[in-house]
Amino acid sequence: MTNKIQSIEKDFFQLARIALSGRPQDVQALLYRVIKKDKGQNSELSQMLSELLRKAPTRSSPLRKTAERAMPVDVDSRFQLLRIEEDPILNHEPVYAPATQLALDRIILERQNTDKLLEAGLEPTRTAIFTGPPGVGKTLAARWLARELGRPLLILDLSSVMSSFLGRTGTNLRHVLDYAKSMECVLLLDELDAIAKRRDDSSEIGELKRLVTVLIQQLDDWPSSGLLLAATNHADLLDPAIWRRFEASIEFTLPSIEGAKAFINNVLSGVLDDSRIWADILSAALADKSYSDIESDILAARRAAALNGGKIDEHLMHLVDKPGASKDEKINLAVLLVQHNLATQRKAHELTGISRDTIRSHIKKLEGRN
Q1: What are the φ/ψ torsions at residue 155 (nearest 5 degrees)?
Q2: pTM value?
Q3: Residues 203-222: pLDDT tens digits?
C-alpha cells in the first residue's frame, strides 16, 4: 500500500509540474501512462481518466490555435527551421509494397480507434521510423498519413538544424520538438542520420553525441496526441538506442514491376488515354528505378513534348531505350511495343536491337499459349 501511495504522489507531482509549465500535450501523455499503469488495479480511476481524455477538446486548426507561439528559427541565421503543410496535398496516390501499406494502414486504424485502445490501457503508435533508399516514397508516406489523419505536416530536415555554432544545434532541435509537441500534428524528421549517428563512432565529436541523447529523451516523452515520424536513407549509421525508441519500423523498397505499373498509371492517368498501356511498357523499361526517378523521367518527357511539340507518346518512347538491359528484358520490351501497337517490328528493332525474326517468334509463342 505504501508503494502505491508513493507512486500516486509521484504521478501527482509530475502532473502539477507539467501543468504549471503550460504543456497540455505532456499532461495528456502522463495521463495515458497513469491509465496504463493503473489498469487492473483501480478500474474506476482508469475509467474516469479515459472518459476525461475522450471528452478533451481537440484542435480543429492546430496551427492557428498556436499562432501566438513563435515559429522556431535558427538561433544564428534566423531562418525558419520547419516546413509546414497545413493541408497536405498529394499530386498522385502513393503505391507501396503490401507490407509497407499494411503498416501505414495500421497507424491510421489506431488513430481512428483511440477509444478502444484507451479501454485496454493502450496508446496509439506515437513514433515510427521509415527506412529505405532515396526516392522510394518515405516523405510521400508522411504526407499521406497527415492527409488521412486530417492533421498538418511539419517537416524538419535535420541537416538544417546544424548550426554554424555546433553547440547551439541542440537548442534548435529542442525548439522544433517543443513547438511540434504543442499541437496535434504529424512531424517528420527527415535525414535522421544527419544527427542520430552511432555514439560509438570515434569520428564524431561530443556535441553530436549529445544531440543523440537529446533526441532519445524527446522520443521517450513524445505525447500520443501527436505522431512523430523519422526517415533515413542510411539505417546502418543510426545509433542502436535510437532504433529502440521508435515503436514501429517501416521499410520502403524499390518498386516491383506491378508496383511500378500501378504508380506509372497513376502519374499518367488524365494525361494519356492509354495510360495503362504505357504503364505496361514503362514498368518494364524503368525497372530497378525508384518512384522518384520514374516520375522525374516521365515529367521530363512531358516537358519535352510541351516545349518541342509532338505527342507525349513520342517522347515517352525515348524512355524505352534501357542501357544495360539484358537480352530477355529487351525482348520483353520489343514484344510489348508491338503487341500494344506502339511500334512496328522495325521500330521495336531500332529501339531495342532485337531482330524482327526474334520479335515475331516470341509473339507467335505468346499467341499460341493464349
Answers
A1: -115, 125
A2: 0.75
A3: 455 667 777 888 888 888 88
| Order of all β-strands in the sheet with 153-157 | 83-85, 153-157, 186-190, 227-232, 127-131, 248-251
Burial class (CB in 10 A: 0-12, 13-18, 19+), 165: exposed
Q: C-alpha cell of 45?
A: 480511476
- 178 grid coordinates: 517543443
Q: How many CB atoms lie within 10 A of CB 363?
A: 15
Q: What is the DSSP string of 169-195?
A: HHHHHHHHHHHHHTSS-EEEEESGGGT
pLDDT in tens, 102-151: 999 999 999 999 889 888 888 899 999 999 999 999 999 999 999 999 99
- Burial (CB count within 10 angstroms: exposed 0-12, middle 13-18, buried 19+), residue 327: exposed
**Rounded CA gap, 140 and 148, in Å?**
12
| Cα distances (Å, whole numbers) of residue 221 to 92, 245, 283 | 35, 10, 44
Task: Report d(CA 145, CA 14) in Å as an integer.
Answer: 32
Total count of residues recorded for the chain = 370
